[in-house]
Amino acid sequence: xxxxxxxxxxxxxxxxxxxxxxxxxxxxxxxxxxxxxxxxxxxxxxxxxxxxxxxxxxxxxxxxxxxxxxxxxxxxxxxxxxxxxxxxxxxxxxxxxxxxxxxxxxxxxxxxxxxxxxxxxxxxxxxxxxxxxxxxxxxx
Length: 140
Fold this sequence. Notes:
Blueprint (H helix, E strand, L loop, with lengths): L1 H19 L3 H6 L6 E3 L2 E6 L3 H11 L4 E6 L10 E6 L4 E6 L4 E5 L3 E9 L2 E9 L5 E6 L1
Parallel strand pairs: 3-9
Antiparallel strand pairs: 1-2, 2-6, 3-6, 4-5, 4-7, 7-8
């Protein structure tokens, strides 16, 4: 019994250290979620399964924009084509979401975000103001 308690205490101590050291927990989560690049823009997506959602919640705190994709009945969607342009019309991102949650690191500014699922396109405008995170939800 004492040995079990010691092992549990050691496990909790190691976990606390991993969560306290910047980037150490992210290294674990990066095995679950792949962080991608489109030119100079960093993004990631996923959200199917509890491991992916946990990783995205943790890693997503550092991203300035979060997009959520779902059907009107509430079912999550994936394979969404995402295009983000700034107010001058420059493309910051052109990618396909691998899950219902999509995170993007964008600098401060106003953006046109287009999400396409099958043959339906939804366009929204968002003002991004890091370090705050802007969240937009898209429903088809």
